[in-house]
Amino acid sequence: MICAIIGSTKIAEVHIHELVKNKVEQIYIISRFKKKRINLLNKIVSRYKDKNTNFKSSNINILKKKKFDLIDICSSNHVHDKHLKYISGQKTIILIEKPIISLLKYKKDYLNFLDDIYRENKKLIVIYPMTKLARSIDNLVNINDKIKNFSFNFKVGGKYFYKNIIIDLIPHALSFTNYFFKFSSNKKKFFIHSVKIKKNSCIAKFKYSGSNISFYFSEKINQRTILTININNLKIQRLTKNKIENFINYLKFKKNIKIIKNPITEFFNEFFKNKNNKLYYKKNKDLTYEIMKRSVGFIN
Fold it and tell me: Quick count: other Cβ atoms within 10 Å of Cβ 181?
């Protein structure tokens, strides 16, 4: 398999790591900044010198000249639409970091864009690792009672401010929450009570199917990533440690500490097992439409 990675950020490194583990033979690192892509290329070549993956770098023009089996978009979310348009209709598999596009850019016109992109690209997958984390929590904690109160508190290191924090993080919150509430199969409405936006944080509170749900997002440069979930009276913390090559996820709850599988690894493993499965792409597409539809209400 020949793959192109668009982007030279930390998340691009994470994706490259997963592609190498899944034995991708050749990876092109693509960025408009030559210095950044060369620096990342040198780092990656050194890191995976004992692997059988061949690495190269290029500008985006290579996508029009060479046939790729997989194109993985890891660029900033405000240019996702630009990159999707550039490669649209190439009949290749497309992976893309969440959100698929910025709602601040498209607002209610997002539906037309999505319809056009999915019409031209039948194998498009948006990466939602929080669905795998939700499953790990459910398997460990066994949440059997009706959920009356639910909160998703996510602190991350990042560069976004004000509404851009919502755009960046709400796909994580909604894909996680959807695991427990099944929004797409339940036609009940969201009742958004409040959305309070500050420079480095956002708080959103809403009601759904008799449950009180709140999202708290905090984004600051160099801030340690910590996710805290409260389900009724149960507090669960997801913590991480170590570098990309040996990344550890663990849950802390009820005085227990349990190591769990890396959600991003689970997502990539599932992708490679299902890359020829039409139903897999349809389910991801349906989830993407659902997440985008729900997200609009939080930025208006």
Answer: 17
